[in-house]
Amino acid sequence: MSQIRRSGLQNEVIKFYRKCCRAVLKKPIETQNRFQQFVRSQFRQHDISPRDHSVIEYMLRRGQKQLEAYESDSVKDINS
Q1: Residue 6 has pLDDT above 90, yes or no
Q2: Residue 42: is it exposed, middle or buried by C-beta count within 10 angstroms (0-12/13-18/19+)?
Q3: Which of 29, 30, 35, 54 has its CA 20 to 30 A from that of 8?
Q4: Distance separating alpha carbons of residues 24 and 16, to the nearest angstrom
C-alpha cells in the first residue's frame, strides 16, 4: 500500500480543516450542522491552484482569524 506524499502546505491545510471540524463540535448540537456546512463551503468556494503558495498561506491566515472569531462562546449560531 503506497502512502500519499503531501507537501508541508497541504498538511497545514488539512490540519486547519480538522481544527475547524473540531471547533464545530463545541457548538450547540442544534447548530452544528449549519456550522459544518459553513466550514465546507468556505473550503470549497475558492478555486486556488495548488502551486499558488502565497494565496494559500494568505487564506490560511485569514481562515485562522475567522476561526478565532467563531470559536467565541458568544457565537452560538451562524447564517451561511
Answers
A1: no
A2: middle
A3: 35
A4: 13
Q: pTM of the predicted model, to two decimals? A: 0.85
Pick the residue with more confidence: 76 or 15? 15
**76 occurs within a structural domain:** no
Q: Give a yes or no: residue 56 inside a domain.
A: yes
Residue recorded with cell 449549519? 34
Mean pLDDT of 52-72: 94
Answer yes or no: is 77 within a domain: no
Number of structural domains in the chain: 1
37 within domain boundaries: yes
* Structural domain harbouring 21: 8-70
The H helix count followed by the E strand count for the chain is: 3, 0
